[in-house]
Amino acid sequence: MNGSALEQGFYMVAATLFVLGVRLMGSPARARMGNWFLAVGMVLALGITVVFVPHFDHMLVVLGVMGLGVVAGVWSGRRVRMTAMPQMVALFNGLGGGAAALVAAGSLPSVSHLTQWPALLTMVLGSLSFGGSAVAFMKLQEWISGRKYGGLWRGAGLAFLTLAVLWCLYAGVQARLDLMAGVTAMGGAALAGALLAWPIGGADMPVVISLLNALTGLSAAATGFVLQNPLLIIAGTLVGASGTILTQQMSRAMHRSLRSVIWGSHVGQTAMSTVPEAVHPITADDVAMMLRYARKVIIVPGYGLAVARAQLEVKQVSDLLEGFGVEVLFGIHPVAGRMPGHMNVLMAEANVSYDRLWEMERINPRFRETDVVLVIGANDVTNPAARTAAGSPLYGMPILNVDQAGTVIVLKRSMGRGFAGVDNPLYQDPKTRMLFGDAKNSLATLVRELEGIA
Amino acid sequence: MVSFLAEAYIFVLAVLAGFQVISKVPSILHTPLMSATNAIHGIILVGALLVVFSAHNSGVFWTALGAVLFATMNLVGGFVVTDRILGLFRTDGGGRSE
């Protein structure tokens, strides 16, 4: 399909640019250059593919469709808000997976006895990712709610997928995989993907998005085996590796197994006391005084902060405090947000510099020497029961050790529980103060109080 | 034409390189990493083009053309979004990511 050595040489350069580009993504200062490496590699690969085509009548049609895709891609990429980034990534994921499945289906008439098997794999993986991503997108966009579906529906979807794949295997062994069998497998996989993603929601989203990313990457790699194209194998595998690593890290950070995320075996109800013990409320002017005369302050933002759209107010508070000579850092839990690393992007958007955004392992030793911690819209990731209560569903989950600081101020709408449905003993801790109310309003009041002190 | 065995070699080496490179990305950059890898799987566009160019019947042509559209949106959108995200990261000195 692609014989020329020159063409393969250019593909090799593109593959090198991909690996180097991802390597540059390892540092915030060079990451943007890394993205350009990737883009240049991509343009090179595409240019070579188009230039080396022997003779083709419908080039204008193809270029027209690509132009349409470019316009749609640039338009949606420019327009999307940073809070909506998870659904954007889910959407692109679904498009990539769907494209891989279509490529494999389109190559069915010309596959050999050997390459029909990676084609089948591509169609199944790509369609699973397509179906799952479509549902994930709709859930994140809040078009559909996270209703729990019984195991029956999901079982039925998986059974259908299994039957479709078995049929394809039979068809492939008997003669050759035909388009009809392929389309059935794609339909079954898309349905199964959608049914599997349907009940998963809320805080599990970072895991699901990472997993879908891995699936799409692997489907692209499998296409490389179908078309005998090393560049597709390398690029797809890079994505697969990235998705796999992120899935592992997110599951670990949430202290859930991948199986329990997918099968939605929900975190069990806790046997801990549900009697609300006394909490200590505080007013915004007291918080302002406390912060003003602190030496070191750590802010812990959770997704509740993004929901309340209070990022700018947080930045104002941090600026005012720095004006008073207070050292302010941000402690970011790995699963804060709706996708891996999401909270860092939201804080960066509010102009918080990245050397103040500290990840969990780095900031945890600092809590002991910190005077005041401000917890905003985060719950489970600060729950000390994860360290102490052996019976708690959260036990063993890596958390931010906010309870080791001098004083903890929790901004919260009400005494509601976090995603895990577990009481947070942090709130009853004698050194914790609760500032009740909408995060945006509370922070705006805090800003006014701080300005009043100045 | 690359033999199946050679492809398997490439796959295994790519897995090793991928895990090496990606495990070095700090969690602060996980969102741009994810949107960048999202753009990378737009490489499927190369596959879509190869199939379109060698299409012998209209069914295959239109199927692959659908893939071309999906993959182009995926690829271009992914790079635009990643560039935007990375443009937000800055240091205290006001320096932005290059």
Automatic annotation (TrEMBL), chain A:
The alphabetical list of record keywords is: Cell inner membrane, Cell membrane, Membrane, NAD, NADP, Translocase, Transmembrane, Transmembrane helix
Q: Which Pfam families match?
A: PNTB
| Catalytic reactions of this protein | NAD(+) + NADPH + H(+)(in) = NADH + NADP(+) + H(+)(out)
**Domain of life assignment:** Bacteria
The protein's topology relative to the membrane is: Multi-pass membrane protein
Annotated signal sequence is none
Main location class: membrane
* Compartments (UniProt record): Cell inner membrane
**The NADP transhydrogenase beta-like domain, residue ranges:** 10-448
Q: Which Gene3D superfamilies match?
A: TPP-binding domain
Task: Family membership, please give it.
Answer: Belongs to the PNT beta subunit family.
Name by which UniProt lists this protein: NAD(P) transhydrogenase subunit beta
Lineage runs: Bacteria, Bacillati, Bacillota, Clostridia, Eubacteriales
Automatic annotation (TrEMBL), chain B:
Q: Which InterPro entries match?
A: NADP_transhyd_a_C
Its protein name is: proton-translocating NAD(P)(+) transhydrogenase
Keywords for the protein's UniProt record, in alphabetical order: Cell inner membrane, Cell membrane, Membrane, NAD, NADP, Translocase, Transmembrane, Transmembrane helix
Swiss-Prot/TrEMBL catalytic activity: NAD(+) + NADPH + H(+)(in) = NADH + NADP(+) + H(+)(out)
- Stated EC number for the protein is 7.1.1.1
Q: What does this protein do?
A: The transhydrogenation between NADH and NADP is coupled to respiration and ATP hydrolysis and functions as a proton pump across the membrane.
Q: Which residues form the NAD(P) transhydrogenase alpha subunit C-terminal domain?
A: 9-90
Any GO MF annotation of the entry:
NADP binding
Q: Where are the transmembrane segments?
A: 6-23, 35-55, 61-81
Membrane-topology annotation of the record: Multi-pass membrane protein
Q: Which Pfam families match?
A: PNTB_4TM
Q: Give GO cellular component annotations, separated by semicolons.
A: plasma membrane
**Compartment(s) of residence:** Cell inner membrane
Name a single GO biological process.
NADPH regeneration
- Keyword Cytoplasm attributed: no
